[in-house]
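Researcher: Structure prediction, please.
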Amino acid sequence: MDDQGRAGDPRPGGGGHVPDDPRSPGTLPYEGVWRFTAAAVDASVPHARRAVRELLVRQGVPISDDLLQGLLLIVSELVTNAVKHAALLSPTLAVEVAVGAEWVRLSVEDNHPYRPTALETDHGRLGGRGLLLVREITREAGGVCDVEHTTTGGKVIWAALPLKPANPFQR
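Model: Predicted structure follows.
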């Protein structure tokens, strides 16, 4: 994993200038940016989940179990979508985890130009609701998510979630 260590706005590119010394004064020990690539194959889904979980635990990120489970489900859905829908034009994908003092952002990037949209619930279909699920998990956590084009013609799908529950009465 490539440890880029930056903090700031949870939106992609929102961290501004990446300092030469990734640990600036006032940076918490768990803050940083980590990026890894994987082949766009089914086996990458559980590998990405495991890598994200191990990273958050290793860095000591103060994340609740509920938020961690939601984040891991988001990882699964986004990597699955990249494998299912982008592999033909993008044989590799990138997963980035950025952790700030109060938020965690997960993004999955591929080189396929198609910008997906969340489908509405259709109980007759077995699939196709992954982005709807990502949007709902993110919303319930008090976060934001979006799809953006990359400068190379691909896309990055990201979700940023607060480390503290959105509802002060939640545990």
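Model: Residues 65-86 form the longest helix (22 residues).
Researcher: Thanks, that helps.
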